[in-house]
Amino acid sequence: MLEFSEGAPCWVDAMFTDVEGAKTFYGDVLGWTFGEASSEYGNYTQAYSDGKAVAAVVPPMPGLDAPSQWCLYFASPDAAATAGKITSAGGEVLMGPMQVGTFGTMLIAKEPSGAVFGVWQPGDHKGFEKMGEAGSYAWAEVFTREPAKPDAFLPQVFPYGVQQMDPGDDPETADMDFKVFSVGGGGNPVLGRMKMDDDFPADLPPYIQIYFGVPNCDEAVEKTKKHGGKLHFGPMDSPFGRFAAVTDPQGAAFAVIDMSTTFGEMPSFG
Fold this sequence. Notes:
There is one protein chain. It is built from 4 helices and 16 strands. It is α+β, with helices and mostly antiparallel strands. The strands form 2 sheets. The chain has an 8-stranded mixed β-sheet with strand order 2-3-4-1-5-8-7-6, covered by helices on one side. The model has no long low-confidence stretch (mean pLDDT 94).
């Protein structure tokens, strides 16, 4: 059983108009299998990798016309207290806190620059049963044009240490503004924050990019395109793995990363 410190990513889910289509897509691209839909909880359906829970898909709530997107949940020992911190730090609670049977308590919120995220106070459902491997959640980054807002907000809500990446001498990274948030006294990085530059579409709102591990990045991209998804960036080599940013056929954005294929020296953080 995995244990999640306060502020650590602990779960992901997404709403899809075509849940069966999503199951087919992610079953092929990420190798997921799916459990039975829970009719008591809006046909919430868990996804598994090697028999371990890694994510969930669900149809939209009646009357809710929202685009398909992945939502990242951060662990909290007290969702109500976290909701208070979100509000006092300048964020907005969009939904909850709401108890979900005996599974736990959830809320959905927005940080001040506009990226949406979730908070999960575990009950019977602790969160990921597998992560950091192929077929499961690997990493996440807040993409925003106003980095000062999440930089000030996040450490007020969660017990984060913060480090700025040294862009180094490489012209490709010279203008990169990237920070890492860590838990456990700064020893466990759990979230990145990237400033969006002019390469991003002007109408793209701030968002949290979720990375899923795959055994082969290029194969995952080809499968994505085969099913009608789109490639937006990459594949690109990095010291953390070979990765690419894509959207699925229903428009939900995510990234795939092969963490076994690394290239270059690790950047330094100060």
